[in-house]
Amino acid sequence: MQIRSPHDSDLPALLALEQASFRNDRISRRSFRRWLRHRDCVFRVAVDGDTLLGYALVTLRRGTRLARLYSLAVDAAARGRGIAEALLGRVEQGAREAGALYLRLEVAEGNVAAISLYEKLGYLRFGLYEDYYEDHASALRMEKRIRPYTPSGDSRSLPWLPQTTAFTCGPASLMMAMAGLPGHYQPSPEEEIALWREATTVFMTSGHGGCHPLGLALAAHRRGFATEVWVNNEGPLFLEGVRDENKKRVMRIAHQGFVDECAASGITTHYSDIDQQQLTDRFSAGANILILISTYRMDSMKAPHWVTLSGFDDDCLYVHDPDMGNTSPHQGPDTARNPLDCQHLPIAREDFAAMSRFGSKRLRAVVVVAADRPPELD
Q1: Where is the N-acetyltransferase domain (predicted)?
Q2: By three-state DSSP, how is residue 73 classified?
C-alpha cells in the first residue's frame, strides 16, 4: 500500500468510492475537481498499484490554525488493513506541517466503529450537532490537538451565531457577546437588524455600511450592559474606502454623533492600542470582547470584519466568526463554510497582531462588553 497525493487520473475511482461509501452528503465531481487543485487542503489517497483503497481530505481555514477532516472513505473490500488509521496519520502530518494546531471532525452519532477509531487516535468529544446530515442524523463533534501545548486562560462557553446578511458581522458578534453574559438577553434576526441600524457607519466601500465600534458600544449600553472601547484612530473611521465626498460627509456626521453620545453616556473610550495581555485580562475578568480584524488573511478581500473572542491559551487567541461564507456577493455556494469552521477559531498570537489591523491607517478597534462596569485594569 502507498499513500500519496491524488492525481487528476484518480477522479473516476474517487467518484466510484464516494458512491459506494455514502448514501447522502456525497462529494460531487465538481467538488472533487476543486479539491484536487485547492491549496487550502490536505488530500491523500491510499493505493495498491492502480487500485484506490481509500482517501482522506482535510480542509484548512485560512488565517487560522484550524483544520477540519472534510471526508474519509475506505473501500469495503480493503477494510481491516489499518488504511483509515494510516490515512489519518498522513493528513494530520500534512495539516501540522501547514501550521494547524487543531484538527476537528464530525461523525454520525451512530457510527460506532468510526468513533472508536477516532477516540483511539486521541480525538475528544466536544459537542453534538443535531440534524446535521441530509437524513437528519446528528453529528458528534470531535477535536484533536495535533501539536502539544500547555493550556492557560479561560476558554468559556460562548454561544455562536451566524450573521444573516453580508453586512451584519458586528451585530452578530455583539449578540454573541451579550448572550454569553449573565442576564436574559435574547438574540434574534430582528435584533440583528436593529443593532445594525443603531451602529452603522451608513456607508462603506460598496453596499451597506459596516458597524462603528462606538455605535456597537452604544447599542450594548442601551441594553443594560457596561461597555468600554479601544480605538487607535480619533477621526472618522473607514473613510479611505469611500470616494464620494458627500458619503464621506455623512460618515463624518455619523462618527461625531457616536462620539458625542458615548461621552454623554459615560462610555470610556481609549484612543490607543490594546495589547493581547489587556485583552485576555478583561476576558478573564468576565467581559466579552469584540475585535475588528481584516479578512485579508482569510479570504484576500481586505474587508473590515467583527469577531468575538471566545478563549485563549499560550499559543492562540480563539474567536467566534459569524461569517459562514454564504452571505457575500463575492463568494459562491462552494465557499460556504460548515458552522464548525467558524467556532473557536485558533489564531496564533503572532498572526493575530497583524490580522487585527485594518486599512492604510492600521486601524485597531475593540469593544469590551460586561454585565457590570468593566474592571479597572491597566
Answers
A1: 1-147
A2: strand
Sort residue 63 into left (φ over 0), alpha (ψ -120 to 50) or beta.
left
- Go through the chain and tell me how many residues it has: 378
Dihedral sign from CA coordinates of 96, 129, 124, 53: negative
> Helix, strand, or coil here: 109?
coil
CA distance 127 to 106: 9
246 contacts: CB under 8 Å, gap ≥ 6: none
Other Cβ atoms closer than 10 A to 86: 17
End-to-end C-alpha distance for the chain, whole angstroms = 59
Identify the DSSP state of 338.
P
Q: Strand, helix or coil at 145?
A: strand
Sign, CA dihedral 337-196-288-273, equals positive
pTM assigned to the model? 0.69
Rounded CA separation 370/110 (Å):
41
Q: What is the pLDDT along the chain (378 residues), one digit of tens a residue?
A: 899 999 999 999 999 999 999 988 899 999 999 999 998 899 999 999 999 999 999 999 887 888 999 999 999 999 999 999 999 999 999 999 988 888 999 998 889 999 999 999 999 988 888 877 777 888 898 989 887 644 445 556 789 999 999 899 999 999 999 999 988 899 999 999 999 999 999 887 666 888 999 999 999 999 999 999 999 988 888 877 788 889 889 989 999 999 999 999 999 999 999 999 999 999 999 999 999 988 755 555 667 889 999 988 888 888 999 998 755 544 444 456 677 678 888 888 888 877 887 777 788 999 999 997 555 555
CB 339 within 8 A of CB 326: no
Q: Under DSSP, is residue 230 helix (H, G, I), strand (E, B) or coil?
A: strand
